[in-house]
Amino acid sequence: MVFSVDFAQDGVFEDTWRLRPGEMVSVDIYVSNVPEPGLRAMGFKLTYDSSKLQVVQEGTGVDPGNWLGTYADFETPGEVQVAGFQVGEGLAGDTIKLGTVQFQYVSSGASEIMLLDRGETVDCFVLTDGTVLDGDLVDGVLLGRFVPVFNPGIIMLLLDE
Asked: Out of 3.30.200.20, 3.40.50.720, 3.40.50.300, 2.60.40.680, which CATH number does the structure's domain 2-160 have?
């Protein structure tokens, strides 16, 4: 499986997104290269630097897309746990939306967002035939980075002094 993010929600996958403190962005999370018979269940832990980002929790904070029975846990700062399941046919192929998480950039500096499994006792990505695909998450997957917007005006002021 291949995991990707679309920061601009425009159908283009990015690995970096620039923000100013106070700005918000909704991040779509996708999985591709999912074999037949398709996913019956999905779950993941999303980690981020809580001193730089916070999840906007209006509503659930996570849009589950095509997933039913979606569970989202925001209790631990710097971490969101998400899970959901399909009824009927599984989802196979490419560009399967796992959900959307909205972040607010609260402090200047870089923050990575990582996708990890939810723990040793929980199967996270399961096909309708019962095959577990969690091996792709053993070391976690770097989805992307938030970085501050470069402000050339500040550099010019410093050079003028």
From this structure: 2.60.40.680
